[in-house]
Amino acid sequence: MKLKGRNIIITGSSQGFGLDAAKTFVREGANVAICARNRERLQIAQEELVLCAMETARVISMPADVSRPEDVHRLVEHAVAEFGGVDALLCNAGVYGPKGPTSDVDWADWAKAIEINLNGTVLPCRAVIPHMKKMGRGRIIIMSGGGATKPLPFLSAYAASKAAVVRFTETLAEELIDFQICVNAVAPGALNTRMLDEVLEAGPGLVGQKFHNEMVKVKEQGGTPLEMGTSLCVFLASDESEGITGKLISAVWDPWREFPDRLDDLKGTDIFTLRRIIPKERGKNWG
After folding, report:
1. How deeply is 73 buried, as exposed, middle or buried, from its count of CB atoms within 10 A (0-12, 13-18, 19+)?
2. Residue 213's domain spans which residues?
């Protein structure tokens, strides 16, 4: 078991990818603290996790809105009190937010999406860092997505917030490198979850014909298997990933299982990061 005895907090974990990641973690022997805003779904998720957990693993839950500092503080302090510490944090909570032209969508909805996706990533990190520093180690895993690496017309809040969390990942990794705390972002692929259904329900009139067509295709083909992303998260939460930090890693396209053998190449380079493209990198000599 790769995570035996590790204590892990997972946000947005009552369903979808977060719940699947929690199941994978407890099967690997981890103690898991889950949270979500919906109390009933959270209770059902905890019951499911208990059934698939290893005998030594514990599962606790607490309703929490990760965009609210007081909720996040209570969650982390509860996990620390119950488990004795926090070894890893998986920031999974996220929403698409409003769909439609940026000039037309409701501003309160747009701002709320930023609060959940960006603030709801930063706040849990802020809360666990002091505990990880005391332990002298830690792993922070931040869920990214397609919105971080390409434009997503008509989903501007989602795209902006996901790009922001990747740059936050890179920045936080630099801050924490001397404390043996590794911080990485994960792109899990196009998943067949409630968020996909949400886009399909919105229709091409709100999300754009191109993106809607792409999502219809994902639905028909079943999407990226959840285990591809959860396996990467296990890797990043375990000792196997020691020294790998500040990277945006695709569960589908990147050879992440080879990373431990390429550690020297990964350190000190901008491989697997977000960077500006300049003319000469595209064969243009503009002086």
Report:
1. middle
2. 192-223
